Amino acid sequence: MSLRDDARSLAQDVDRWRAQTPGCATVVHLNHAGASLSPVPVTSAIVDHLHLEERIGGYEAADAAHDRLEAVYRSVARLVGADPTEIALVENATRAWDMAFYAVPFEPGDRILTGVAEYASNYLAFLHLKATRGVQIVVVPDDATGAMDVEALEALIDDRTRLIAVTHVPTNGGLINPAERVGEVARRYGVLYLLDACQSVGQLEVDVRRIGCDFLSVTGRKFLRGPRGTGFLYARASSTGELHPPFIDLHAATWTGADRYELRPDARRFENWESYVAGRLGLGAAVDYALDIGMAVIEHLVGQAAAGLRTRLAGLPAVTVMDKGAHRSGIVTFQHAQVGALVIRDQLRAEGINVSVTTATSTRLDFEQRGLPDLVRASVHYLTTDDELDRLVDAVRKLDVLR
Ligand SMILES: Cc1ncc(COP(=O)(O)O)c(C=O)c1O
Question: In this predicted model, what pLDDT tens digit does every residue of 48-92 receive, in sequence order?
Fold first, then answer.
């Protein structure tokens, strides 16, 4: 097939994916980094299961869905290149990350190496253990492109370094951190590596073996287009199998005697017994949907849409794109010389265009280092059309006229 035929058939595919996404008919959705629009198979998986629960009872419906629930682990494992026994299904990316982080037996003086663009909830957990266990937080500087400086990371490792915790794609714009190169360093020094892949899985090809991380935390509702209240943790069997979850229940462990218990050997020891069963099925449907399209195709289309948006925004004199990194994600952030980010978001929403606002409370170190104001965040996906990008840019251009 020629390049032009390829492009034409991809455009037809995008039309089909959009037709399977009811939200595409009602809004210009540029908030996939917040919560994406789910396609019909995802919503149907959830609603069908809720109806089954309504008809036959929650426990009985879960039994009836047993094989499909097991298939969710296989789908998630395939998505990130893991074994199904290395996957725990949890409520969101933060819970996944916390279960991994708080399982690490930190001692006073242990060092955590992290990046400038680390996500707030992760950094809050570092601060918590700094206050309660005396760990040290070491922030690795950025390189000239704004990504984590991997040579600086390597130079900072010492025998007290207990964990490298990095956000792959930060919440506040553009940057894709060099996760694989970080992994090489972590392996070379035998340091545990926790990767926050909340914003990368679903928009980029992510393979845990290639990256070499020990833990990976992900959410369902963002670029994966799954339901809210879902997420998962990958825990490498060979390096994390001995780690005890921070808290356990009768699903994570079996009460084998009055003063004994046995922990599950697989990653499900990081789960709870009670869970949002319909949501898990929805997450599985979302993962299958992404796998059917192919992550390479998704990554290509996201990259194309994001580049198209950055080019368009660069043509607006009052607008400055604030993204970092040499190789960039589908998250585009910008500021306007006269109009604040919140005003822009509200104005756009009134016109049926969804964007969000990113603030210092999400990635404080980066905001302070760069002296950033609140930024508008427009996040694209493989569904995003040129027409939608034009609508956003026209609406932002009109803000000038309004003033
Ligand atoms: C980089 C990053 N990590 C973690 C999270 C937290 O994800 P969740 O809300 O699913 O816990 C977010 C949410 O925006 C994020 O952007």
Answer: 999 999 999 999 999 999 999 999 999 999 999 999 999 999 999
Q: How far is the CA of 315 from the centre of ligand 1 (A)?
A: 31
Dihedral sign of CA atoms 178, 179, 184, 190 in order: positive
- CB of 171 closer than 6 A to ligand 1? yes
Nearest to 372 by CA among 333, 402, 329: 333
Ligand 1, atom 4, residue with closest C-alpha: 198
| Tokens of residue 334, six digits | 């910008």
Cα(288) to centroid(ligand 1), Å: 22
DSSP letter for each residue of 76-128: HHHHHT--GGGEEEESSHHHHHHHHHTTS---TT-EEEEETT--HHHHHHHHH
Structure token pair of residue 204: 């980029």
SS3 368: helix
287-342 pLDDT tens trace: 999 999 999 999 999 999 999 999 999 999 999 999 999 989 999 999 999 999 99
Closest atom of ligand 1 to 94 CA is 11
Beta bridge partner(s), residue 377: 333, 356
220 with 231: CB under 8 angstroms?
A: yes
Q: Mutate which of 121, 222, 359 to test ligand 1's pocket (most atoms within 8 Å of Cβ)?
A: 121
Q: Is 79 in the pocket of ligand 1 (CB under 6 A)?
A: no
For residue 367, report the distance from its CA to the centre of ligand 1, in Å. 17
Mean pLDDT by 10 residues, the chain (403 residues): 76 97 98 98 98 98 98 99 98 98 98 98 98 98 97 98 98 95 98 98 98 98 98 98 97 98 98 98 99 98 98 97 95 97 98 98 97 98 98 93 58
Helices (H), 40-83: 40-56, 58-64, 66-80
Dist. CA 310–CA 28, nearest whole Å: 17
Any ligand 1 atom below 6 A from CB of 172: no
Enclosing H/E stretch for 388: helix 386-402
Give ∠ CA 326-327-330 in degrees, rounded to 5: 125
Residue 123 near residue 365, CB atoms below 8 Å: yes
